[in-house]
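Re: that chain you flagged

S.,

Sorry for the slow reply, it's been a week of failed gels. I finally had a moment to sit down with the sequence you sent. For the record, here it is as I used it:
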Amino acid sequence: MSVEILDGATIVNFVEDEEAFGNSVCNWFAHLDTDNDGLLSYEEMLKELQSLRVLETHFGIDVEPDPEELAHVYESLFTQFDHNLNGTVDLEEFKKETKQMMLAMADGMGFLPIQMVLEEDSILKKAVERESHIVAA
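Prediction finished late last night. Pasting the structure tokens below so you have them in one place:
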């Protein structure tokens, strides 16, 4: 993990760089696709969703969420990616939804810089690294 400074423009510029964004999403998808069938099942995405700990923490403090509510949230998030509702997520669905989520995050952040703790292999970290390379050039 590292502490980074970013703003909405960091994310928007990353998403608009089709090569950088596309490569990052493809690598992330391949990492999640543990059976290498080119599709993400609910079980494969569930591991990633659980690692986000969206409902398991409240301002950094662990809480015990309702298991039924948690299951419903994970199912809803999976359905958000599964655009054709066939029970799996292909690369194009994953890329399209990831792009929408990233742009929504950028919109919510605005253009004032903020500090965030980022996982080393996260897509946000890739956005920050891209921006750093451009500024340094």
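What I noticed first: The chain has six helices and six strands.

Talk soon,
D.
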